[in-house]
Amino acid sequence: MGFEKEHDKWLCDHLKRRRGERLDALKRGHGYGNRLFVEQVWWPLAGHFYGLHPEYEVKDWRGRSYFVDILWEVGASRIVFEIMDYGSHGTDRSKYRLDLNRGLFFTVTGLYGALYLAG
Hints:
Protein name: DUF559 domain-containing protein
Helix content: 40-55%
Distance between the termini: 28 Å
Strand content: 25-35%
Strand order of the largest sheet: 1-2-3-4
Oligomer: single chain
Order of helices and strands: HHHEEEHHE
Structural class: alpha+beta
């Protein structure tokens, strides 16, 4: 199957399994930049969506919920992809700073590998 069908199937599967804030975060968060990442980077490299989770909920250093753009679970490893597009991060510097602090937290704790992609 091609990207369009697989992406729609993957996203619908995640939408069906979520409720409350997790569902709202997915509806709000998987926008243009995240879709472009999975289409232009992830799909050509992997050709599948196994272990990939959009808008995945994690706890930050304060114990507060935070939704990472994309999390990839492979075995016991978790790798976080944060898409730092200008539209959602470039205009709000305090949000951008908080996002960078979260990335530093993920890297320092070793709980998640963090990869930030600027667009």
